[in-house]
Amino acid sequence: MLRKFKIAIDGKEYLVEMEEIGGVPQPTVPTQPVTAPESVPAVEVAQKAEPAPTTPSVAAGADALTAPMPGTILNILVNVGDSVTENQPVMILEAMKMENEVVAPKAGTVTGLHVAQGQIVNPGEALITID
Questions:
Q1: Mean pLDDT of successive 10-residue segments in the chain (131 residues)?
Q2: Rounded to 5 degrees, what are φ and ψ at 48?
Q3: Where are the domains of the chain?
Q4: Integer CA distances (angstroms), 33 to 16, 28, 57, in order
Q5: In what order do the strands lie in the sheet with 89-95?
Q6: Is 35 exposed, middle or buried (0-12, 13-18, 19+ CB in 10 A)?
Q7: Which residues, other chains included, contact 124 with Cβ-Cβ below 8 Å and sequence gap of 6+?
Q8: What SS3 class is residue 56?
Q9: CB-based contact 84:109 (threshold 8 Å)
Q10: Which CATH class is domain 65-130?
Q11: How wide is the angle at C-alpha 86 spanned by C-alphas 125 and 70, nearest 5°?
């Protein structure tokens, strides 16, 4: 039996249907369609504005450092052309409300950034190339 739920994530409402397995059947209640939230006034948007994220510099090669887990890039600590040492933090990845340092696996020079600040990444996605 499918059950419908209305959930809110980051202020946006979603209507989801889930199949109940092994539960006692509940009577269904007709639902109304979820409407899109009203647009936010420009003044309010300007107050919430964040700095523009940096853009990735080049395409990733097979030797790029990859994301160890899904998360959001909070901060990039190096730029293309910077020299790094082994185990030096190169970016901060937020996963499950925790900030995780991504460190350089070897000493070298940053030759490519493949993500931008604020970008959501999945495990195995290229982050940075160090040669």
A1: 80 81 59 58 49 50 84 94 93 91 92 92 91 90
A2: -95, 0
A3: 65-130
A4: 11, 15, 43
A5: 98-103, 89-95, 71-76, 120-121
A6: exposed
A7: 66, 67
A8: coil
A9: yes
A10: mainly beta
A11: 25
